[in-house]
Amino acid sequence: MATVMEFSSPAEEFPLGTVFENVPGVTVELERLVPQETLLIPYFWVRGASVEDIEAVFETHAGVVNIELIDSVEDEYLLRAEWHSEYFGILDALAAANVTVLSGIGTVEGWHFEVRGDDHETISEFRTSCQDHDIPIEITAVHALLPIQDDNYELTNAQREALVLAYEHGYFDSPRESSLQEIAAELGITQQSLSSRLRRGHRRLIGGAVIDR
Fold first, then answer.
1. How many CA atoms does the CB half-sphere of 8 hold within 13 Å?
2. Taking the model in full, what pTM does it have?
3. How far, CA to CA in Å, does 195 sit from each of 51, 119, 168?
């Protein structure tokens, strides 16, 4: 059965984490990771800094081949970074175990990841790889995917909880009867984490209930 694990890691343990040394107020959220032979190309959203400062900081990262602005929405910027992997880190451990990154959010306080493996053994392989290479991670949750009504799509317990609470509090009503801040506070998570859970949940629900497969 597919398994989802949530874990945290120090900011500097992830290649993009060095940005927090120069722009401590910034938030980085991974959009997707595309492995290409010896290159790992991440797409990520950045909030809390000007695009000029962001590009300047990332261009100084060791091993960065290219940094490109893809899109922007108000004060949020979608960037594409390309670099050569120079050491065995979290990305390499995830790729080696064939584990999918569902979400990754970084701040100066550290990174929080949600990843998916095809089974529990896959997740265990990733954990062992981190231990073997002295990659510090703190596991905060491990759970099986929860099918809802249709086998074509699945939600994690965390995503289902967030969607149900947002629905019950009128977040999806027009006008809205609650805010991300209020719902996140009740769940005991950050607004960024809640936003990510809702977005990932929506994607799975639409993929299973709307898109023909």
1. 10
2. 0.66
3. 22, 26, 16
* Sign of the Cα pseudo-torsion (48, 53, 58, 62, in order): negative
Q: Tell me the pLDDT of the chain (213 aa) as tens digits.
A: 678 888 999 987 776 777 788 888 888 888 766 555 555 667 888 888 887 777 777 766 655 677 788 888 777 888 887 766 565 678 778 878 888 887 888 888 899 888 888 888 889 999 999 999 888 999 988 877 655 444 445 677 788 888 888 888 888 887 788 888 899 888 888 887 888 888 888 877 776 655 444
CB 119 within 8 A of CB 125: no
Q: Which of 146, 132, 191 is nearest to 166 (CA)?
A: 191
**What CATH number belongs to 146-209?**
1.10.10
Q: Which of 81, 43, 34 is nearest to 61 (CA)?
A: 81
Nearest by Cα to 145 from 103, 117, 112? 117
